[in-house]
Amino acid sequence: MNDQMLLQRALDAWQLPGPLRIEPLEGGMNSRAWRVETAGELFVAKLAGDTAFEAGLLVAEYLEQSGFRAGGPIRTRTGALTVPLGDQCLTLLRFAHGQEIDSNQVEDLRTWGATMGRFHSLLQRLPEIPVGMPRWPWSWFDPTAEQVRIESWIGPAIEQSLEEIGRLESMRPLTLGVVHGDGAYPLVERATGVTAVIDWGAAMWGPLLYDIGSAYWYFQFEKENPQQAFAPFLEAYQQHNRLPAEELAAIDVFVRMRCAVQGFYFSWRIANDISTGIADAGENQVGLDDARITWEQMANLRWR
Questions:
Q1: For residue range 82-107, what is the model confidence (pLDDT) as tens digits?
Q2: Average pLDDT in the 184-198 region?
Q3: Can you give the chain as a three-state secondary structure string?
Q4: Are the C-beta atoms of 244 and 207 separated by less than 8 Å?
Q5: Ordered structural domains, the chain, with CATH
Q6: Which of 29, 31, 11, 27 lies closest to 19 in space, CA to CA?
């Protein structure tokens, strides 16, 4: 039985009205996904095997129930979030309509900041941290992990990040909550202005500054924008989820952490020969090279 037939059979758990039109979606570094169309409705079927997968689904479900579009899961007829498919789990997600923002445009940058501020605020009211979600301090961010020996800069970068964050925490508590974990790049419906944030598989419990630092990392990657160009994002964020000024001034620490996380992530992919979401294994090395370059670029970044 081929993959398409296995997928179709697994989707029976949701009792969708047929016939189903299923097309693979590109991208997804840690999962596989398909566009599912039936009776005029669109969904996304997503297959992943990470232990935190269901925790992220619960976060997206909570946001959807709170009126925030998050590509949340549709439960099966028995109430389950996922069904087994091979050695992984399959879920069915709401299709999030919209276009990616252009962070070079000030209004789109404001939309990004406001959207992140909104979901951070909503998630502060999450009744409990989902089982399986990584909790701060994140034990996986380990400078002694075997994989980081692939390149000599990764371990010291992680150690430096942990030392910087330790100094911050010794001076003042950090605001903790559920973070998206991967920049939370929003989609926006231009006609209505409604936004959505999808892909919650990397959600964690930790400092909200990690998401903000990740956003700056994405904003600045391969660009030479002045630091103040990010101000519209921060202003919009603060309108929806205000952080203390002295805490927000420590963004640079979490920007560097994001660079080190990229190094950790791509060294893990290389060490485990993982090629999901890329054309060939050489792209993992490109990702690792980019992480090293941005680490070097951000080494002297100071926000304060």
A1: 999 988 999 999 999 999 999 999 99
A2: 96
A3: CCHHHHHHHHHHHHCCCCCCEEEEECCCCCCEEEEEEECCEEEEEEEECCCCHHHHHHHHHHHHHCCCECCCEECCCCCCCCEEECCEEEEEEECCCCEECCCCCHHHHHHHHHHHHHHHHHHCCCCCCCCCCCECCCCCCCCCCHHHHHCCCHHHHHHHHHHHHHHHHHHCCCCEEEECCCCCCCEECCCCCCEECCCCCCCEEEEHHHHHHHHHHHHHCCCCCCHHHHHHHHHHHHHHCCCCHHHHCCHHHHHHHHHHHHHHHHHHHHHCCCCCCCCCCHHHHHHHHHHHHHHHHHCCCCCC
A4: no
A5: 3-94 (3.30.200.20), 99-298 (3.90.1200.10)
A6: 11
Neighbouring residues of 146: CB distance < 8 A, sequence distance ≥ 6: 271
